[in-house]
């Protein structure tokens, strides 16, 4: 068991940290205030080739694994941009995976290079208000007439739709009652997000303000048949391939945010003097931060293990879910503790830890709740009866 | 134009450094390319891009970990690297390093040797000048601008005490750069992946034809005998009272303690 990074992996961490380091606290606090998309950051990452880290090299990517992507996203989230930085580019890493895995050569040629260069931005139209975790319950439909599908329905929590010109869209192509099982009858499309047929409404939300979340109302959106990915009716299975990578990435992102928070808190605890000594000399301040440090380190190791299993094409579901759970919980705790270390100052935006706390919360909620992970672990790791 | 860039891997001074018993605490330190040397790499890459031909070779003398610095320079776009790795260099001062570098460069062909004007750790700024002397080459220090570069000749701006000097220089030569010369590029992911395929030569003292008595502890002319913490900044003074009272106190201190009008 060797925990050493290769020279390239180390260089990836250093260079991502350096690129992210060009974007200051003031930059991200500004974006948090205005809600503007961090376009400058997105461009810098595209220019460095980072958006193509997991994409095949024949289309301009670097063909690296989930481990490298996780190292990269850990550094991104650890920077001041936290989840806003991560979410601005995160979707590029595994979102287009169905294209890589199931797309035709022509589709790959048409779509991948633009994505890698940051010229097109994609959003994800999967979740619906009546189908969150129960993805197969989605109601958005695609009906084929001639060489086109016409899509009708509504999606919610679609990130970056304000910026995106493409959408990866899951829609029902065969009525549920005609299907043999619940995962059948859904199809995946990668198509133009044509605003003539899609009404995009911004959801005002707690954190990650710079990266928009939206409701989409889709009315008769025409989708040419060449924008269907793989076979009709198999869309859900295609999406499943991206679930474990997403969990691992969200886990390391939460860890990065937590580590940033405790670094800030430790610095403050050294500088802030009360009753003639730095507050960081008090064990009531030290111990919770030390506890967070250990929890974050431990969660990071399981995330790395999960990523390594995924790259070796071994089953990684348990570890991937554990990484997302442990990362999300440890990150949240670290940010909370960091804010409490700052005391009243932590509540002020200029110290940034309240922003980190708002940013990290999404990693607890999405893409799957901590309770659902516990259900899954109880069932799959412990052999207990399924509870839902 | 074939360019040699001398780089040094140094401690990242942005992290908290601790000194104990006259020596640096090595635990938990991070190492980076000295920032002036990164400027030199960028300058070399730009020169080769402008001239449209030639290659950039990085050279460092340093321990095992110094290969990270070379790899980073290769990821930025340099073509190849030479790592002089030999414990005989331990304890070298600028003089001993310059002598080692001179030995290595004696047998190589190049148009230009670039380096940072000083290293971020020692701030000595001696190695490029000593190397020029050992190699019998002309040199210009502290350049802030390149006006012209062609076969056998360069026109440079050097930052002097009383403004910028515009200097014409015949090549080959040694040039050291000021960090205002450029903004070093960030390595791209592609650069990082290509770097591992670029040639990196590791040479020991014997391979460069060096003499152990002329480098390291036996070759050095100076020795750092102790490191001291910089003096802590003293707390400021706070004046209280009416405007009239406080301004009197301030003027009194400026006149009698700081003696700024003396």
Fraction of helical residues of chain B: 25-40%
Strand order of the largest sheet of chain B: 11-10-9-12-8-1-6-7-13
List low-confidence stretches of chain B: none
Regarding CATH, which class of the largest domain in chain B?
Alpha Beta
The pLDDT mean of chain B sits at 92
CATH superfamily of the largest domain in chain A: Butyryl-CoA Dehydrogenase, subunit A, domain 3
Number of beta-strand segments of chain A: 9
User: What is the mean predicted local confidence, pLDDT of chain A?
Assistant: 95
Distance between the termini of chain B: 56 Å
Helix content of chain A: 40-55%
**What would the CATH topology of the largest domain in chain B be?**
Rossmann fold
Strand segment count of chain B: 13
The major sheet of chain A is characterized as: 4 strands, antiparallel
**N-end to C-end Cα span of chain A:** 37 Å
> How does the major sheet of chain B shape up?
9 strands, mixed
Give the amount of beta strand of chain A, in percent: 5-15%
**Which architecture of the largest domain in chain A would the CATH scheme give at its second level?**
Up-down Bundle
Structural class of chain A: alpha+beta
This entry's quaternary arrangement is heterodimer
């Amino acid at each position: 068991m060797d925990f050493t990074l290769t020279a390239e992996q180390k260089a990836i961490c250093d260079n991502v940290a350096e690129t992210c380091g060009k974007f200051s606290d003031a930059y991200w606090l500004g974006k948090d205030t205005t809600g503007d998309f961090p376009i400058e950051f997105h461009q810098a990452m595209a220019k460095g080739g980072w958006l193509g880290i997991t994409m095949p090299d024949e289309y301009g990517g670097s063909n690296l694994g989930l481990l490298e992507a996780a190292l990269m996203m850990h550094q991104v989230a650890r920077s001041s941009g936290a989840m806003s930085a991560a979410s601005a580019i995160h979707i590029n890493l595994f979102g287009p995976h169905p294209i890589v895995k199931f797309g035709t050569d022509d589709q790959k040629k048409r779509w991948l290079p633009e994505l890698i260069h940051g010229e097109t931005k994609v959003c994800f139209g999967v979740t619906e208000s009546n189908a969150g975790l129960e993805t197969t319950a989605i109601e958005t439909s695609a009906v084929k007439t001639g060489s086109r599908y016409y899509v009708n329905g509504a999606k919610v929590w679609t990130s970056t739709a304000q910026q995106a010109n493409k959408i990866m869209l899951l829609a029902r192509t065969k009525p549920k009652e005609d299907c043999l099982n619940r995962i059948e009858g859904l199809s995946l499309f990668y198509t133009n997000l044509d605003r003539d047929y899609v009404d995009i409404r911004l959801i005002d939300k707690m954190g990650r303000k710079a990266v928009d979340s939206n409701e989409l109302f889709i009315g008769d959106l025409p989708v040419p048949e060449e924008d269907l990915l793989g076979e009709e009716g198999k869309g859900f299975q295609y999406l499943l391939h991206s679930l474990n990578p997403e969990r691992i990435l969200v886990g390391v992102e939460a860890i990065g945010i937590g580590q940033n928070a405790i670094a800030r808190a430790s610095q403050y605890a050294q500088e802030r003097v009360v009753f003639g000594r730095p507050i960081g000399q008090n064990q009531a301040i030290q111990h919770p931060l030390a506890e967070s440090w250990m929890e974050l380190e431990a969660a990071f190791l399981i995330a790395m293990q999960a990523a390594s299993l995924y790259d070796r094409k071994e089953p990684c579901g348990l570890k991937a879910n554990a990484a997302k759970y442990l990362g999300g919980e440890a990150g949240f705790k670290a940010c909370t503790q960091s804010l409490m270390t700052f005391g009243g100052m932590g509540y002020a935006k200029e110290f940034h830890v309240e922003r980190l706390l708002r940013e990290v919360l999404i990693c607890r909620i999405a893409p799957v709740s901590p309770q659902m992970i516990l259900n899954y672990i109880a069932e799959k790791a412990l052999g207990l009866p399924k509870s839902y | 134009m074939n360019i040699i860039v001398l780089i040094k891997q140094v401690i990242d001074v942005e992290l908290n450094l601790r000194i104990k018993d006259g020596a640096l605490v090595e635990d938990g330190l991070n190492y980076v390319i000295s920032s002036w040397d990164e400027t030199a790499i960028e300058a070399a890459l730009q020169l080769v891009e402008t001239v449209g031909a030639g290659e950039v070779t990085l050279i460092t003398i340093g321990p095992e970990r110094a290969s990270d610095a070379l790899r980073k320079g290769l990821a930025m776009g340099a073509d190849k690297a030479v790592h002089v790795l030999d414990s005989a260099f331990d304890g070298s001062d600028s003089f001993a390093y310059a002598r080692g570098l001179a030995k290595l460069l004696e047998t190589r062909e190049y148009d230009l040797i670039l380096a940072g004007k000083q290293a971020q750790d020692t701030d000595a700024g001696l190695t490029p000048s000593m190397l020029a002397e050992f190699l019998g080459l002309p040199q210009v220090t502290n350049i802030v601008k390149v006006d012209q570069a062609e076969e056998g000749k360069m026109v440079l701006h050097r930052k002097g005490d009383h403004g910028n000097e515009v200097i014409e220089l015949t090549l080959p030569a040694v040039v050291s750069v000021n960090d205002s010369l450029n903004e070093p590029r960030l390595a791209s992911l592609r650069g990082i992946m290509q770097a591992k395929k670029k040639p990196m030569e590791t040479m020991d003292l014997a391979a460069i034809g060096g003499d152990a008595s002329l480098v390291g502890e036996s070759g050095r002319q100076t020795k750092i005998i102790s490191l001291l913490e910089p003096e802590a900044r003293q707390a400021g003074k706070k004046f209280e009272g009416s405007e009239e009272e406080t301004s009197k106190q301030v003027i009194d201190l400026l006149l009698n303690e700081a003696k700024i009008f003396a």
